[in-house]
Amino acid sequence: MRQRFIAPAAVAVTLLLAIPASAAEPAPGAPGAGDPYYPDYGNGGYDVSHYDLRLKYQPENDRLDGTATLLATTTQELSRFNLDFALDVRDVRVNGRKAAFATSGAHELEITPDRPLAKGQRVTVVVRYSGTPSKVEVNGFTSWHRTPDGGVAANEPEAAWWWFPSNDHPTDKATYDVSVAVPDGTQAISNGVLTSERSQAGWTRFGWRSDQPQATYLATLAVGKFDIVKDETSDGLPVLNAYSKDLGENDRGARASIERTAEVTEWLAGVFGPYPFNAIGGYVPNTDTGYALETQTRPFYSQRSFSAGTNVSLVVHEMAHQWYGDSVSVHGWRDIWLNEGFATYAQWLWSEEQGEGTAQEISDYTYASYPADDEFWTVKPGDPGPENQFHDAVYDRGAMTLQALRNEIGDDDFFAILKGWQDEQAGGDAEVRDFVAYAEQVSGKPLAALFDTWLYEPSRPDAPAAKGGGTERAKPARPEKPQSWSDIQAAKHGREHGKHAEHGGEHGHGH
């Protein structure tokens, strides 16, 4: 048989063509999670399953030293990857080996391991860091709030950058162990269950554990001098509330509101289904902020929220978020209606429960409060844009959307949807269109037009009329003000928060 001579160059080309696509060079992970509202928030190429944070904080000078250990799994072959972080980094290790690192942009930490990472590989990342969080600004703001006796990390949609490196987007949720050493006489408050408290050589170390998936912006840390009140619910769920010792006259209103958290949570479980986490509570530090935030298991409240006295409606709002926003998170920040519309509607249902105005009456009065030519009606709750993410329309028109849905499909299906959605989506994230599809599935009705009218049309819809006996109830020309209106408005002022409110944006974040 005659042999054919093949030149070496041809052999090289043949071998190159034979290499499978999977053997291509590993690529860097994306510097963002793909969210159109915040393109550089989060990162691509990996998924974090757990954060272990070991911190030391000195309130006198706002000095934070930390070691963050992240357990993750790669979702592609990686030559390098990013974390979202804004403090000073002194050392990074990947799988025990020193890794090169550099900063990019305002909050990107680029990490290059000493060898590429395979797809599906389990990875341990250790970052050692330090800084003065209150002096670190990103895009002109900080989410670390200095207090007379310490500091607090609480904001939306970003808060983690100032105290731990993370994949900062709600689509990558993880469990947490947070261990914080502070000077004796000072407390450290975080999410979940307090697992340890040990003192040594003038420092006390507090250990906190969150054992259910938690988005990064829902992780919180507060250091200061607190009065801590511990209890448990009737079914044994641990309750821990904390109040700064220098709240002054706001202390009474704060306690009269937050100490009802267990009662509110029990009631909400009847509306949304079983409480999804292993602890409840709330905390009020002495910040100069004016907003509240649904930090998981233990909402953050500004003391100003209670300057007029009790504000239980605000507690209802933040605890409702434990289901809508925390257990089921937004897939993208455009889906914010799934958080705010539902938490606002929970306040309306609480009013109904208390006999101080039905949800229909509050919807009627809210609708009449905004004239047809008001800019309010031009904001689309289903996709409001980043500049209007926390606009009143997302809350109020968002809640009216749910009243319109309730009127259309009836109470049985409506409340079945509120519970069933939580059961089906618990621990994950979702889009508005997922909820629309689920509501159609449960009710057996085509609802796309209803949701389009209320969530996406930049104009005033017809008011959501209640139905009864096959006819629509006539509406008074001037709806009567519900008894709960002032409480709901007080809660509304108490939820104005975040970088837009505190740092000069057009609209405040509302919670």
From TrEMBL:
Chain residue ranges for the region called Disordered: 461-511
Span of domain Peptidase M1 membrane alanine aminopeptidase: 310-454
A biological process term (GO) from this entry: proteolysis
Record-linked Pfam families: Peptidase_M1, Peptidase_M1_N
Signal peptide: 1-23
Domain of life: Bacteria
Provenance organism: Streptomyces armeniacus
The protein's name in its UniProt record: Aminopeptidase N
InterPro entries noted in UniProt: Aminopeptidase_N-like_N (IPR045357), Aminopeptidase_N-like_N_sf (IPR042097), Peptidase_M1 (IPR001930), Peptidase_M1_aminopeptidases (IPR050344), Peptidase_M1_dom (IPR014782), Peptidase_M4/M1_CTD_sf (IPR027268)
Alphabetized UniProt keyword annotations: Hydrolase, Metal-binding, Metalloprotease, Protease, Signal, Zinc
SUPFAM superfamilies hit by this protein: Leukotriene A4 hydrolase N-terminal domain, Metalloproteases ('zincins'), catalytic domain
Enzyme Commission number(s) of this protein: 3.4.11.2
Keyword Flavoprotein: no
Family, similarity comment: Belongs to the peptidase M1 family.
Cofactor: Zn(2+)
EC top class, as a word: hydrolase
GO MF: alanyl aminopeptidase activity; metallopeptidase activity; zinc ion binding
UniProt catalytic activity: Release of an N-terminal amino acid, Xaa-|-Yaa- from a peptide, amide or arylamide. Xaa is preferably Ala, but may be most amino acids including Pro (slow action). When a terminal hydrophobic residue is followed by a prolyl residue, the two may be released as an intact Xaa-Pro dipeptide
PANTHER family: AMINOPEPTIDASE N, PROTEASE M1 ZINC METALLOPROTEASE
Basic and acidic residues composition bias: residue spans: 470-481, 499-511
Sequence ranges assigned to domain Aminopeptidase N-like N-terminal in this UniProt record: 49-218
